[in-house]
Amino acid sequence: xxxxxxxxxxxxxxxxxxxxxxxxxxxxxxxxxxxxxxxxxxxxxxxxxxxxxxxxxxxxxxxxxxxxxxxxxxxxxxxxxxxxxxxxxxxxxxxxxxxxxxxxxxxxxxxxxxxxxxxxxxxxxxxxxxxxxxxxxxxxxxxxxxxxxxxxxxxxxxxxxxxxxxxxxxxxxxxxxxxxxxxxxxxxxxxxxxxxxxxxxxxxxxxxxxxxxxxxxxxxxxxxxxxxxxxxxxxxxxxxxxxxxxxxxxxxxxxxxxxxxxxxxxxxxxxxxxxxxxxxxxxxxxxxxxxxxxxxxxxxxxxxxxxxxxxxxxxxxxxxxxxxxxxxxxxxxxxxxxxxxxxxxxxxxxxxxxxxxxxxxxxxxxxxxxxxxxxxxxxxxxxxxxxxxxxxxxxxxxxxxxxxxxxxxxxxxxxxxxxxxxxxxxxxxxxxxxxxxxxxxxxxxxxxxxxxxxxxxxxxxxxxxxxxxxxxxxxxxxxxxxxxxxxxxxxxxxxxxxxxxxxxxxxxxxxxxxxxxxxxxxxxxxxxxxxxxxxxxxxxxxxxxxxxxxxxxxxxxxxxxxxxxxxxxxxxxxxxxxxxxxxxxxxxxxxxxxxxxxxxxxxxxxxxxxxxxxxxxxxxxxxxxxxxxxxxxxxxxxxxxxxxxxxxxxxxxxxxxxxxxxxxxxxxxxxxxxxxxxxxxxxxxx
Length: 686
Prior knowledge:
Immunoglobulin-like, eight-stranded mixed β-sheet, seven-stranded mixed β-sheet, 16 helices, 25% strand
């Protein structure tokens, strides 16, 4: 470990013993966990926009009773899609009020078209009797109209808040006395009747969908019905969040009192499963929606004050993780799990049990170096007078590691931490002085949402309802495997230096599906550690920041019941850790400076495909490691012999037919990504 940690520690090179992880109870129903992992959108407004449009697209054709009606529905939806494409092509801070006006107009047109189509179909309902598919199509069209009305009503309720966030804010000094947080709560309260009204539409939609006999309709219509139900349930979850949002924000923002938060500053150049080594930390006091007080400090043996050693058994350290002279510190410096709520709970316990300032805290904010680079992009520059420097997005890391080198030369390894603490404090100072600038506030909103989506900023609260809302939005950093579906998370833990910004990692996931619903899987992880990149990285210097070679503890999280069959590459002490929800493949590895390495794990996964009528459905969730910068990911899925693809989401980058159909997905991996494939098996001869 390259940092001078509070307690001396070493990496245990003996073969790790399997650890059976206790299953943690997850909040929220299964469908909510399943849906939340499918949506990683730029902000709540855009989430609702996408839901509204997809609902319309889902039900197009559900009212295919007369050609004129069908054409009218398609024309309306095409207009709505054009508006959506225009809005979604913009970043979060470029969203304008007239975009939402155009969306509302188009959505109203779709609702009216659906209403007209449903009325026409209802007139001729007597002629549809005895045809289950046409009856179901008409019912779906009516349910789709209700869901679309719910989306429109929710957007109407959000209009005052959107006006405040993206419109011209008042320059009245009296208005400035009310914090942005307080004002948002007031405006969400104004919109609450609309959110409640939306619940009525959603209940009506649910009632209609419940009348459809799924045993009598065609397989294709059954798939369409499930999609519509999924979108309805997703909108139900957002509606519930918005109804509760004034109360939740009142608690989180300390309205009528105060809330305190622990801030973990993760060094993602020294990657840990949950984002990075915690070299500095801070606390925030929030009162009536404003940051009232805050402080940053360097992590040292006595800062923060640790819990009594008698409590070290509270969080047992897995046998395969870093060995500490005093194991209690494993709960603080980044932890062994990529599930951020677990890490946050341990950090809160460590901080509170040590009786540190403002304990007990009400939550944890984890922010890494990438997120601070994003903030600096919005701030452009920040002056640090005590060090006589001005930091920018381009010189931030160079200054940090330059001061670290100087302090190591002087025999004071903590000076760079004090510098980072000063930098973070002045960033917050500058942020607070410009909080009433609407253009700046919009810019900050955009970069914060980007950091949340990419897991460079993660939040955890002591309020389960707030955490459930964060889960739905995809901002909690929670691991979310689902039984009977495929899952993969590739996790690094840097054990020797600060080279992660110079290492280019990518992975390839090959999946071969069997007729019985299991899978033969192969994960190939590639590392490129080029001197041409590292030589210009101020964090890569063996004189000050640890040995040049990259020593890593690699974890692969796969579905429960996975069985490892073969490994390739120079892996040390590979082991398998089985749990109720996940199976881990763990190994140490070394990537030498200016070299490339390739590692491979082959394994079998049971029961990752489930039947839906005559169709088979395969779902894969790829979760991004917190703190990891963007990397290339390739997924290749081979369907069973003779299987015919029905639909895939997202669209495959390429498809091949080499005895069996192969789907390839290639993407820049920045956020959690879900892949869904529906196919039909060949019919057995009678």
